[in-house]
Amino acid sequence: MGEVVDFKVQMTAQRFKKILHAEDDPDIREIARMSLEMIGGFEILQCASGEEVLKAANDFAPDMFLMDVMMPGMDGRESVRQLRQSANFAETPVVFVTAKASNVDVDQLKEEFEAAVITKPFDPITLPDQLKEIWSRMTPEPAGS
Predict the structure, then answer these.
(1) pLDDT band at 67 (very low <50, low <70, confident <90, very high)
(2) pLDDT-derived band of residue 142, with 50, 70 and 90 as boundaries?
(3) What pLDDT is recorded for position 101?
(4) pTM of the full structure
(5) Per DSSP, what are the bridge partners of residue 65?
(6) Is the peptide bond preceding residue 124 cis, with omega within 30 degrees of 0?
């Protein structure tokens, strides 16, 4: 009869492929790119600023935003505020990455943006699995499951 496949798991994996990553530090961008592409199998578009994110988001149509909080010019918070004004990204999961991770800062990010937070330095080996786990918490179950 063939192999039994968990359809819900298969659909979730199919839906989560594209991550738009914003990070001003080129070394951190490269580590994240290698981690997410090589280990996680994701399609990644990287931007060095919030302004670049706003220009690239519609064409790339990411499944998730991975945003550095502190960037020169437009920071991650303001980028997400502007992205949320678009119906295309009003519900797109956001994960902030920050070195400034007091409990108050993390709680503010989670509350204002309904976002997850990962602290720097992150582990590039576990980053893809962290994002998959966050994805499963932040996205609704498919209808009929």
Answers:
(1) very high
(2) low
(3) 66
(4) 0.85
(5) 20, 94
(6) no
- What is the distance between the alpha carbons of residues 131 and 115, in angstroms, rounded to a whole number? 12
Q: How far apart are CA 96 and CA 40, in angstroms?
A: 18
CB 83 within 8 A of CB 54: yes
CB of 47 within 8 A of CB of 20?
A: yes
- Of the pLDDT bands very low, low, confident and very high (cuts 50, 70, 90), residue 117 is very high
**Which residues have C-beta within 8 Å of that of residue 70, sequence separation ≥ 6?**
76, 98, 99, 100
Q: β-strand 116-119 against 64-68: which pairing, if any?
A: unpaired
CA pair distance 111, 41, nearest whole angstrom: 30
What is the C-alpha to C-alpha distance for residues 128 and 115, in angstroms, rounded to an integer? Answer: 17
Q: Which of 40, 39, 35 is nearest to 17 (CA)?
A: 40
Cβ-based neighbours of 51, under 8 Å, separated by 6 or more: 73, 74
Does residue 105 carry a pLDDT above 70? yes
Helix (H, G, I), strand (E, B) or coil at 67: strand
Identify the three-state secondary structure at position 48: coil
Quote the strand ranges of the chain, DSSP E. 18-22, 43-47, 64-68, 94-98, 116-119
